[in-house]
Design a protein that fits this description.
The protein is α/β, with parallel strands linked by helices. The chain is about 45% helix and about 20% strand. It contains 11 helices and 10 strands. α6 (about 165-185) links the parallel β6 (about 155-160) and β7.
Length: about 325
């Protein structure tokens, strides 16, 4: 992400605080970006009205859209003078993430902002929430907002995998850092570079009696430390803002975020889909439940959105 010109704020009627709208407006005031507030509505009782005529069904649908449009206009009224351009949009769809992605593709939004809530683990495995779909499939970065203020001079974490030598991982690391520094410029804040690495495999110490776990851990840490410092030097990040930690990323990143009271975690996502995603998720998704601050998930270069413009749902 090089700049921020167009923001799509996903409206949640159940969120009285309207965290996504407030965060979008906050960013727009700092960047001059336009904000489009998108509310996706659907009444599942509509599925039970097949005995009605087509005109009656259309009237039911249109009435609900008009009602929610009036409600959204009221919600936006206090923000009207705070940003240069503020638009409202109400869409009827039974799969919110598809509508969100369709509008992102159509209107080239630079950022999707959505409030998120804690997901029950079993629910997350069986019914993938909208924000998980967006993390995996949206063509634009997704900012998932929680109840955490963004004060001036706050802290932002760029979470990378510094030791990976594959080109697409290097490109993603650079994009994560650039994006973190861009948001840090909005908040006049510091960027922390955080690299996590796995601990010593237990099976090695059992299967190889001559294996020295201490020496192995030191070598692995040094490798990650050297790699992380190279990124820090490239992006002019102070050495004391470069952290290398052993452990699972979703645990370590959250611990560090709490320790420094971070406002934002910027992380890359591989956009995993299918059964592996449902069962395993990825680091960005695991962070959603644990993090006490906002999470910005970005895709690697060359990511291809699986939803095409004007795709129709079944």
């Amino acid at each position: 992400m090089n700049n921020l010109n167009k923001i799509l704020a996903v409206i949640d009627p159940a969120d009285e605080a309207q965290k996504s709208l407030k965060r979008a407006v906050e960013l727009a005031k700092k960047t001059g970006a336009s904000v489009t507030a998108l509310l996706v509505v659907y009444d599942f009782s509509y599925e039970m009205t097949t005995m009605l005529s087509g005109d009656e069904r259309e009237l039911m649908r249109r009435s609900m859209i008009e009602e929610r449009t009036a409600w959204l206009d009221e919600v936006l009224t206090p923000y009207a003078g705070q940003v240069q351009q503020l638009h409202s949009l109400v869409e009827w769809h039974n799969r919110p993430f598809e509508t969100i992605i369709q509008h992102t593709l159509k209107d080239n939004f630079d950022l999707i902002v959505k409030a998120t809530h804690k997901h029950h683990l079993l629910h997350s495995v069986i019914f993938t929430p909208t924000d998980w779909h967006l993390i995996r499939k949206a063509p634009a970065p997704v900012l998932l907002v929680k109840d955490h203020a963004w004060p001036e001079n706050g802290q932002i974490i760029a979470a990378i995998n510094a030791a990976n030598e594959e080109k697409h991982h290097k490109d993603l690391n650079q994009n994560i850092i650039k994006t973190a520094q861009l948001f840090a410029s909005y908040l006049h804040s510091d960027t922390y570079l955080l690299n996590c690495y796995p601990g010593t495999p237990v099976n090695l110490t059992v299967e190889l009696p001559e294996f020295d776990p201490t020496q192995y851990r030191q070598a692995i840490r040094q490798h990650h430390q050297t790699s992380a410092l190279q990124y820090a030097k490239q992006f002019s990040i102070a050495e004391d803002k470069c952290m290398v930690k052993e452990g699972l990323p979703e645990s370590i990143i959250n611990d560090v975020a709490k320790e420094i009271d971070a406002e934002l975690i910027v992380i890359g996502t591989v956009g995993r889909t299918g059964l592996s995603a449902a069962l395993l998720g990825n680091t960005a998704e695991h962070l959603l439940d644990a993090a006490n601050c906002d999470v910005l998930a970005i895709k690697p270069e060359g990511f291809v959105c699986p939803i095409k413009l004007d795709d129709k749902s079944e």
